[in-house]
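chain below, 599 aa
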Amino acid sequence: MSSYADRLAALREELARRRLDGFVVPLTDEHMSEYVGAYAQRLAWLTGFQGSAGSAVVLPEDAAIFTDGRYTLQVREQVDGAHWQYQSVPETSIAAWLEQHAPQGGRIGYDPWLHTRGWVRSAKQALADKGAELVEVDTNPIDAVWPDHPAPSDARLIVQPDAVAGKSAAAKRQEIADWLAEKGADAAVLSALDSIAWAFNVRGADVSRTPVALAFALVHADGTAELFVDEEKVGEDVRRHLGNGVRVQPKAMFAQALGGLGGKTVAVDPERAVAAIFSALDQAGATIRAERDPTILPKAIKNAVEVAGHKAAQARDGAALCRFLHWLSMEAPKGGETELSAAAKLQQFREATGALRDLSFDSISAAGPHAAIPHYRVDEASNLPIKRDEIYLIDSGGQYQDGTTDVTRTVIVGTPKPEMRDRFTRVLKGHIALATALFPAGTRGSQLDSFARQYLWAAGLDYTHGTGHGVGSFLSVHEGPQRISPVGSSQSGGDEPLRAGMLLSNEPGYYKSGDYGIRIENLVLVVEMPVPGAEKKVLGFETLTLAPIDRALIEPTLLSPHERAWLDDYHAQVRALIGPQLEGEAAEWLSRATAPLAA
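prediction:
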């Protein structure tokens, strides 16, 4: 189909054939993943939207696409407003929009393998109020009109060795079994791909930038488990690694296995398991216990081996990034470099480490006005040159077997405007405030979010994304349950107490639409802090990312002595840990870039 308008028309014809008056299109897969394989990119195929979070609704006459504040500009660049209404989340929702726009007595279709049970309930209620009906489909109508629909990946699983994982898969399964005994349950459903990868100490290549394999799992109260994955993806090395306690079955057998759990008490995560899983268990006569996936918290709290691996990955990745920043400082002022060429060069530096498995996400390589789009994604059509006296923002990361990285640096090519220096310094002050925060055990990410925003707020400024997200260990670059974000935001999750061992990003920003954008992002580790006289445990952050912060964009008079000391100490650490990995002009550049800030 030659155009997105043709695709929308084809879907409407298919819906009419099925006697449906509408269909809901989420950007996820049957595992409720944030990043999905090509076969599940239905929203992108239908609309052209390339962001990592969004959804759409198609009715006979109306169609709407729903995105949050991160994609306000991007969705308008990529999706044709002549055919789609732009809707902002959380100001509205699919349920609220359907309540207004669904035809009286209409039948609105949904794929039960792509929605949670909670969403189904809310949508059904909203439609009932309109006299309309939510209808479960057996097969996804988009797949029926997608002529070159990709097949799911057939990449083979690989083993994540205990020496890197820090704990054996058998020990993890036993911990889940102990948890099931506490809950009085017979089995737990694991449907989130990173949960399965973590629990079984395996990784895969089925989702771009995220080393997971398409699979489901059941873990039983005796510590045994069933792993549902296409068998041709499992080599003898993985079978030996899994051992006799894990039975490998075809992925297509998962629904049938759920049907065999009648009379059993089964723990299922209502946030991560799709509605179809609950329906299958209900029909089987199982007793469902709604519980959070038992791997979520252990996965988020990194063990000592994982922490050591992250630090090694950060040092390796930091050297690659510093080589890139040195290259950029030499080449960008000459002209001729673009967003795409710069992103490719940074990937080359990471690949030169010999340890890179993949990028951790598509690099956000953004020049000038594109830097004002927080989750911008460059392609051949949007590619801008990197110009003098403009800001260039690069948000990027690598997947290494010992750790996942995510770092943003904002640099000026040439001379910054005074306003740029002011805004950059306010972002830096917020970054430092969060990096140096001390807080009692039990503090939630939502309570810390304003630390990073306060200096922007004082000037009547703000940013629309969360301040921090969790990060996995050679897993997803966005990992819950920890977050640093406002309560009620579309990224919230910020009500999870922070615990020692959790890894998060610290990434405040500022974005001036059509002009420039700023973000400073480091990864930080939650650690216990010795505080004399403290009456309860005190936590704080250890910064792990190692790369210079552009001193040319800093207005020193806006920094307090404490903030200047933090910056100089941080740069000294970068110089000490990265400097020995660099040679020649790159080493000399690093010395200049990390020199103490002049008064």
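The chain has three domains: 4-145, 158-293, 301-593. Residues 27 and 43 are 6 Å apart (CA to CA).
thats it, cya
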